Amino acid sequence: MLLFGTFRQQFHSRGGTALNNLRDMQLGGPDESDEDEPSPYESETHIRVLDMQDRRPMGHEIHGITEPSMHLIRARVNDSVELSKGSRMAADSESIGPLSEIRHRDLSPAAIGELTEALLATISETPEKHLGFYNSAGPMSLKYHAFQLLPGIGNSKALQMVQLRGIAGWNDFAAVDEACGIESARLLAERYVKEMEDDAQTPRLLDILVRSEI
């Protein structure tokens, strides 16, 4: 399915859910506020540590990114022995306390400096869903292709990439790089960073490729 079709599908899916919730409220149906909302990090398996921060007198906290959904998080450190910048740990490790959200602008400078490389490492762990962008991206309008969401990719380059992709597509990022003369995984990581910096960036590849359940 072309990527712009995925946008449309997600819009209708979310719109339908919202409509059903509104109908339940009007008819006196289930009150969602009475139910415990699941943690957004329940399905996360690992954390990549971007930085360790000294929070005296409370100790230390980490700034990190979760896997596989790439949420920016912070957590208090219970035991700093096994933790260091760049390390990867289980999300349910007893070395840290509960996870909480942190905005990109609240990350430490060191964490911001590590973010792109951490995203690249995460992409390498589960390349299929990210590579899918290059194999399924389609036109978003008559004059704009989804490839143009990537930093430095203009219209002519996007059209060239479509021709090079052909019908078969690519089996891995190395094949994309060789055919198109780009660093395909890095361009995706840089796009993800841009979306983390600015919530107004749309469409959001993080939601479509990484966090979508559709």
What does this structure look like?
The chain is elongated, with a radius of gyration of 20 Å. The longest helix is centred in the first third of the chain and has 24 residues, at 3-26. It has a 5-stranded antiparallel beta sheet with strand order 4-1-2-3-5. It has 7 helices and 5 strands. It has 214 residues and is of the alpha+beta class. Among the domains are: 46-108, no CATH class; 126-211, AF1531-like domain (DNA polymerase, domain 1), CATH 1.10.150.280. The protein starts with a helix and ends with a helix. Strand 2 and strand 3 (72-76) form a beta hairpin.
Distance between the termini: 12 Å
Can you give the mean pLDDT? 85
At the third CATH level, what is the topology name of the domain at 126-211? Answer: DNA polymerase, domain 1
CATH domain class of the domain at 126-211: Mainly Alpha
Overall body shape: elongated
Low-confidence stretches: 6-29
Order of strands side by side in the largest beta sheet?
4-1-2-3-5
CATH-assigned homologous superfamily of the domain at 126-211: AF1531-like domain
Strand-pairing-aware structural class: alpha+beta
Number of helices: 7
Q: Please provide the ordered H/E string of secondary-structure elements.
A: HEEEEEHHHHHH
Q: How would you characterize the largest beta sheet?
A: 5 strands, antiparallel
If you compute it from the alpha carbons, what radius of gyration comes out, rounded to the nearest whole angstrom?
Answer: 20 Å
Total strands: 5
- Under the CATH scheme, the architecture of the domain at 126-211 is Orthogonal Bundle
Assign a percent range to the helix content.
40-55%
